[in-house]
Amino acid sequence: MPVWLVLLLAILVVLGALAGIRQMAKFQEEITALKDRPAFTPVSVDPEARNNKQRLIVHAAVVEVSDIPEDLEKNPYPDAFRLIRVEPVRVLHGTLPAKKLTVAAWAMRQRKVLSGRDFKVGDFVTFDLLPAELAYGNVTSIRQIDTMEPDFESPLYYESAEHALRMNALTAADWRETGRFRREVIPRAEFDHQREEIFQAYQQDVLPGLVKASKENKIDSYSLNYLKATDLFQPVYGGTTPAAVMVDFASFLESRGVDFLLVSIPSEVEVYPEHFASPVAFPQWMAPQRYEFLAALSDAGIRVVDGAQSLREAKATASGPLFMPEKDPHLSSEGCRVVAKAMAAPLRDYVETTQAFTEKTVDYKTGDHKLKAYQVQADPGDLYQPDNTSPIVLCGDSNLFWWQSMHCGSAGIGAHVAKELQTPIQEIAGAGLQPQTLRSRSKELATKKCVVYISSSWVLWDDRNPWRLYSDGHSTDLK
Q1: In what side-by-side order are the strands of the sheet with 369-379?
Q2: Which residue in 59, 81, 353, 357 has the most C-beta neighbors within 10 A?
Q3: CB proximity list for 367: less than 8 A, separation 6 or greater
Q4: 88 CB-near residues (< 8 Å, 6+ apart)
C-alpha cells in the first residue's frame, strides 16, 4: 500500500475520532442543560401590564375567600359575583400585572346560584379574565353576594360568563363520571404532593435516556421536542400557549351553545416507557408536563379524555403494537380503536343510534412490518364513510386521518367512534391542525352539538405552526 494512502487513512481515522469526541461532548452538554433547567418557568410580573387592559388567562391558586350569606333569596341582584383573591402559578395568555389578583367570579345568574362556585383556599382554578376597566369601564361598585371588601386600587378582573357557566356544569354527574379528566385513575392530589420529585426524576433520569434514544434513531424529532419541553404553559415559537387556545376555543363554542371535548393522544414513549428509558420512577407520569397540562384544562372546566390511560391499560392484551413502527409517532389501527372506545362514552348523549357497523380484520404491511388493521364497514364490502350532517364533529391532526383516508382506509379513530356510537359522524382533519385553522368554518361549527378536538402530543410543541387564539379571527365579546 502506498505511503500516501496509509497517511490519508490515518488522517481520516483521526478526524473521525475527533468528530465522535465533539459529538459526544455536544451530547453531554445537552444532557447537562436538560438536567439543570427548572421544571417550569417562574411567573413574571409587569406592573405596567395593568395599563394594557389585556385579556388574561391564568392557572391560579385561591388564597382568600369570604363568607356567603345563607339566605341568598334576598339578594337584590339577578346576576352577581363573589370576590376571591388568587395567586397565579401559570400565565397562559397575557401579562400578569401583580403577584396576586382579585377576581370577580360569577356566583349568581338569572337569580340562580351557581353551585360550582364554591371556592376554597388551596383550590387551583384556571380563569378566563377581563380587566375591570375593559369589561365595565370605571368600576366603583360590584354586585356581589359575599362579604369581601373590593379594593379598586388593586388589579381587579372579571371572569368570562361562558367560562363560569361551563365550570358550573361540572357539578352534573354525567360530566363528572364520563367526560372529565379521569382523576380516579391518577389522583391529582397524589401528583401535586409529589410534583417536585416527579419532575426531578423525569429530568435527571428519564430525559437523558430519551435524548440517547433519539440519537439511536428510536424517537422522531417532533416527539422529542415535545418531551424536552417540560413546561407546556409557555408561548410556543412566537405564538401563545396551547392551554390558552383550548380555553379560548371552548369559551367560543360555549357562547354559541356548543359543547367541547378535548382528546389527548400521547407519544409512544408515554405508553411504552420501558422501550426507551430505564429506570422510570413514575411510569404513570412518564411525561408529567402533559399530565399537568390536561389537569389545568380540567380545572378550567374543559372535558378531557386522556388517551394515555386507556392505551397503557390496553397494551398488555393488545394483539399488536398500539403505535406505528419505524419512528412513526401515529397510532396503529388498534391504537385508534382503543382511543375511540375511551372517547365514545361522553359522546353517546349527542346522537341516536341509526346504523350498526361491523369490523373486518385485514393484514397491512408497512416497510418490513406486518400489522393488523381493523376496518369499519356499513355492509360487507362497503367501507365506513363520515357524515357531514352529524351533530358531532371530530377535528384533529394527522392521527385522525392516518387510517381513515390513508393506508387501508376506514380503520381510524373516527370510524371506530362511529362504530361505538352506531351512527356516522363528521370529521375535519389536517396535518398539525389547530383550532385557529377552523376559523373559516365557525358557522358550521355553531350548528353542532359537540366539537371534539383530537390533539397529538407532539403538536403541542411544534415549531412549524405557532398557536393562536381562535377568537382573534372573530368579532367576539371574548377578546
Answers
A1: 358-366, 369-379, 382-383
A2: 59
A3: 325, 326
A4: 43, 58, 59, 60, 61, 96, 101
Best-predicted range by mean pLDDT (236-245, 435-444, 461-470): 435-444
Q: Are 436 and 238 in contact (CB under 8 A)?
A: no
Beta bridge partners of 455: 264
pLDDT in tens, 34-85: 555 555 567 888 888 877 778 899 888 899 998 877 776 667 778 888 899 9
304 DSSP β-pair partners: 262
94 Ramachandran zone, left/alpha/beta (phi>0; psi -120 to 50): left
Q: Which residues 6+ apart lie within 8 Å of 101 measured at CB?
A: 58, 60, 85, 86, 87, 88, 129, 155, 156, 157
As a whole number of angstroms, the distance between CA 223 and CA 238 comes to: 20
Only one residue has cell 372535558, namely 303
What nine digits make up the cell of 319?
394483539
- Bridge-based pairing of strands 56-64 and 80-93 is antiparallel
**Could you tell me the end-to-end alpha-carbon distance of the chain, in angstroms, rounded to an integer?**
76
Angstrom distance (rounded) from CA 197 to CA 194? 5
Cell 420512577, residue located: 281
In SS3 terms, the chain reads as: CCHHHHHHHHHHHHHHHHHHHHHHHHHHHHHHHHHHCCCCCCCCECHHHHHHCCCEEEEEEEEECCCCCCCHHHCCCCCEEEEEEEEEEEEEECCECCCCEEEEEEEEECCEECHHHCCCCCCEEEEEEEEHHHHHCCCCCCCECCCCCCCCCCCEEEECHHHHHHHHHCCCHHHHHHHCCCCCCCCHHHHHHCHHHHHHHHHHHHHHHHHHHHHCCCCCHHHHHHHHCCCCCCCCCCCCCHHHHHHHHHHHHHCCCCEEEEEEECCHHHHCHHHCCCCCCCHHHCCHHHHHHHHHHHHCCCEEEEHHHHHHHHCCCCCCCCECCCCCCCECHHHHHHHHHHHHHHHHHHCCCCCCCEEEEEEEEECCEEEEEEEEEEECCEECCCCCCCCEEEEECHHHHCCCCCCCCCCCHHHHHHHHHCCCCEEEECCCCCHHHHHHHHHHHCCCCEEEEEEEHHHHHCCCCCCCCHHHHCCCCCC
- From residue 336, how far is each of 176, 193, 209, 333, 427 by CA, in Å? 24, 33, 27, 5, 14
Confidence of residue 178 (pLDDT cuts 50, 70, 90): very low
Nearest to 345 by CA among 170, 179, 173, 166: 179
